[in-house]
Each structure stands twice: as structure tokens, then as C-alpha cells.
Design brief:
magnesium ion binding, alpha/beta, Alpha-D-Glucose-1,6-Bisphosphate, Chain A, domain 3, Phosphoglucosamine mutase, magnesium, five-stranded antiparallel beta sheet, TATA-Binding Protein, 3 domains
Length: 462
């Protein structure tokens, strides 16, 4: 059982001991710290925060604790109820709110939950802001308002519909072409809020929708990370219904993956590649993704005359570099699309609309579309951390061993070889070391990952 305080928010497992897990007391403590920090940012009489959640089982409990803590600080709350991470992100500026909180542990299993914290722009806090909140949480300097100054809670559960309106109004979303294409699509909503939002978007676009695991009850039918090994049901349904393709999202709907008409994965790394190909064909410019993402985005960007650059892992790092480089599209290779013309956050709804626009324009199957892109294969493995593992020392040893290769050390250690790369880093969201590799074949990518797992084991004596 674990409590992780990082750039990705306050994340932990439900139950257990205070300070070691995400208990009710920890939820109140960190919500209090966020509220106090928020009030320090803008000196005014009234503050407002948008709060939404995914459908995981602990969501209602954590949301009630968080909202009423903010009320105790004199902060008004907009209760967005069952929502998505990108929906809350766009709701914050729509409400002219001072911030937002999304209660979701993203792709983590059902025993996890988290407080993901937003600023007044509806964007994730950076490391400096996060550190200030952690300092407040560990101090005794928490003062609440008296009874006459309590905040109030207002329900507004229209934001998924408003979010869909915003997506459909994007100039590059070609709703007419999509409707003419008469697509049939299977949607795996992993029994969370994607089961609400994605079918609604598709129906507005004239797409025939077959729902799979779209009941938002929080009982995830499979591991909620949208990877091939978890998606046998989706593959079967796509083939059974002779669908054009399948869509799967994670519980909070900021990650997006596609499955082709044969029930084979399009590749979550290629979600961003395809959407970028479409956007760059209409609005040439630069792109950004994180260091653990495929080289294919670089190739597609350069094909369209743009420049590609990689950031450290973490959405806030990607967004920071995107703004600096004035990119037209960016994101993360885990299926996270960030399209600045909409907002600076990973958004599966935007990704679906852009992908459908591309597919309708190309008038080809999803499998044929995949063959038009450079072919790279990725391995994603991990090593469970134990208290005796010194991750920093292990990574320093790796860095020294490979000092004659092309190294990047802004986030763990990434080693670029001529036809492959490996990225080793400590996760922001789980107690693991992530080992990401990419090569010209799946076998080569897996072999490279296994080589470094063995090397880390040797260094650590495990």
C-alpha cells in the first residue's frame, strides 16, 4: 500500500495507515493544503474550484471529503460529478474558477485514487507549485473560516456535453466528412467515465457505437491501462461486429488507443503520430512529446517541415516545452493528445475527433493507415521497487557505463543507439522503475529491455 506525492498529484491506495496510504485524513490534509495555496495566489473575497471524478469505487467518498474541506476554507465548489480529466480542465476557465481538482488515479487499478491539481488556466501545477502545497500539508499553518463564511457547493453536471460542443467546434474537426463515412466503432470505456463521454461524442458525429464496459460503476473489467494484453474483449467485439475499429480509454479519459478492423492494436504510440499527421497537414508547425515516446513523431513532423523536441516525462513538462516551442500539437506516446487550439491537457475526446477526421479524409482502413507510418516497436517493462533499492545510484552507474553513447539525463537516463533507444526512470505514479525501449522489431525492443533489467538486477544485487 502506497502514498506517492509527485508532479502527477497526490496518489495512493485506499485504506490502511494515515500518511502511508490515501486515507480520509490524507485526502482532507492535501485538499486543505491546496485550498490554502489557492487562496494565497489571488487575494479576493470569493474563490472557486471545479471538482470532478472518474467512476472508481472510492471516488464519491474522496470527492465528498475534498469538496467539504474546500467549503471549510470558504471556497465555493462546482461539483462536476462523474467527469473526465480533460472535461474538468476545460471547465475551470469556463467557470472563471481559481483552480480544479480531478479525483482519479488514471490508469492505476481500482484500489488507487488521487488528487490531480489544476491552476486557474485548467492546467496541472508545476513542480514548484506542487512543492509549496506539500510544504503547507506538512505544516500546522492551516486556518479554516467561521460558520458565516463557509463556501457552498453547486452541482453542474453539464460539462461533458459542453466539452463535446467545444470539440465539435474545432476548425479541424470535419463533422460532415465523419458522418458521411458511416463508421461503426466499438468503445471500451473500462466501466468509467469514458463510457459516458466517448459514446456521446461519437453519436454526435453520426458514428454507430457498440458499447463495451461502458457502465460507469468503477468495477474495471480488466487492468485499466490501455495495453494490448488487457484488450482481448475489445478485439473479439471488433471482429464480431465487423467494426471499422475499436476505441479504448483509461478511467479518466486522457489516454486513447485504437484497434484496427482486424482486432489488432494500432499502437498507443501511434495515436499521437496519426493525429499529428492530420494537424500538421493542415497547420504546419512543430511538435513535442516526452522522452519515452516513439521516434515516429519526429519522422512525421520532419516530413511536414517542422521540428520535433522531447521533454521530460510528465504532462506539465510536455506542456511547458510545447508553449516554449509554440507547437501546433504534442502530447505523450501513451495515447495522450494535447492540442493547444483546444486546451493544454491530454484529451481523448479531441484525439477521437481528429483521428476520425483523418480517417474520413484518407478513406482507408485503420490497418492501411498504420502502414503509412514509420514502423517502430516499443517495449514497456518495469521493476517493482523495494525499500533497499537506491534508484539514483543505479541510474548513475548505468549513465557511467554508457557515457560514450548519446545520453539524455533530464529525466532518469535515456540512451540513444543508432537503431534503438532505452529510457530508464523512476515512475511518478507507481513504486516502480520503468524501462521503455524502441527498436525496428518487437523482438529487438524486448531483448533490449530484458538486457537492461538484467543489468539493473546485477547492479542492485537482486
Amino acid at each position: 500500500m502506497t502514498l506517492i506525492k509527485s508532479i502527477s498529484g497526490i496518489r495512493g491506495t485506499i485504506g490502511g495507515n494515515v500518511g502511508e496510504n490515501l486515507t480520509p485524513i490524507d485526502a482532507v490534509k492535501f485538499a486543505s493544503a491546496y485550498g490554502i495555496w489557492l487562496k494565497q495566489q489571488r487575494d479576493k473575497d470569493n474563490h472557486k474550484v471545479v471538482v470532478g471524478r472518474d467512476a472508481r469505487i472510492s471516488g464519491e467518498m474522496i470527492q465528498n471529503l475534498v469538496m467539504n474541506t474546500l467549503v471549510g476554507l470558504g471556497i465555493d465548489v462546482i461539483d462536476a460529478g462523474l467527469s473526465t480529466t480533460p472535461t474538468v480542465e476545460i471547465a475551470v476557465p469556463m467557470e472563471h474558477a481559481d483552480g480544479g481538482i480531478i479525483l482519479t488515479a488514471s490508469h492505476n487499478p481500482k484500489q488507487w485514487n488521487a488528487l490531480k491539481l489544476l491552476n486557474a488556466k485548467g492546467e496541472f501545477l508545476d513542480a514548484i507549485e506542487g512543492a509549496k502545497i506539500l510544504d503547507i500539508a506538512e505544516s500546522d499553518a492551516m486556518t479554516f473560516v467561521d460558520v458565516d463564511n463557509l463556501g457552498k457547493i453547486t452541482k453542474n453536471q453539464a460539462y461533458i456535453d459542453l466539452h463535446i460542443d467545444e470539440v465539435l467546434n474545432l476548425p479541424l474537426v470535419n463533422a460532415k466528412n465523419i458522418e458521411k463515412a458511416r463508421f461503426k466503432v466499438v468503445v471500451d470505456g473500462v466501466n468509467s467515465t469514458g463510457g459516458i463521454a466517448i459514446p456521446l461524442l461519437l453519436e454526435r458525429l453520426g458514428v454507430e457505437v457498440i458499447k463495451l464496459h461502458c457502465e460507469p460503476n468503477g468495477h474495471f473489467p480488466h487492468n485499466p491501462e490501455p495495453l494490448k494484453e488487457h484488450l482481448g474483449d475489445l478485439s473479439d467485439e471488433v471482429k464480431k461486429h465487423k467494426a471499422n475499429f475499436g476505441i479504448v480509454v483509461d478511467p479518466d479519459v486522457d489516454r486513447l488507443a485504437f484497434m484496427d478492423e482486424n482486432g489488432e492494436m494500432f499502437g498507443e504510440e501511434y495515436t499521437l503520430v496519426a493525429c499529428a499527421d492530420y494537424v500538421l497537414s493542415k497547420t504546419p508547425g512543430n511538435t513535442v512529446s516526452n522522452m519515452s515516446s516513439t521516434r515516429a513523431l519526429r519522422d512525421i513532423t520532419e516530413k511536414h517541415g517542422g521540428t520535433y523536441e522531447a521533454s521530460a516525462v510528465g504532462e506539465v513538462n510536455v506542456v511547458k516545452l510545447m508553449k516554449k516551442n509554440k507547437v501546433v500539437i504534442g502530447g505523450e506516446g501513451n495515447g495522450g493528445i494535447i492540442y493547444p487550439d483546444s486546451h493544454y491537457g491530454r484529451d481523448a475526446l479531441v484525439g477521437v475527433a481528429l483521428f476520425l477526421s483523418l480517417l474520413a479524409e484518407k478513406d482507408m482502413s485503420v490497418s492501411a493507415l498504420r502502414k503509412t507510418y514509420p514502423s517502430y516497436f516499443m517495449g514497456k517493462k518495469k521493476i517493482q521497487l523495494t525499500p533497499n533499492l537506491n534508484v539514483d545510484a543505479i541510474l548513475k552507474t548505468i549513465e557511467e557505463r554508457y557515457q560514450n553513447e548519446q545520453l539524455t539525463t533530464i529525466d532518469g537516463v535515456k540512451i540513444d543507439f543508432s537503431e534503438s533507444w532505452v529510457h530508464l526512470r523512476k515512475s511518478n505514479t507507481e513504486p516502480i522503475i520503468r524501462i521503455y525501449t524502441e527498436a525496428k522489431s518487437q523482438e529487438a525492443a524486448n531483448t533490449l529491455a530484458d538486457k537492461f533489467i538484467a543489468e539493473i538486477g546485477s547492479i542492485a544485487g537482486i
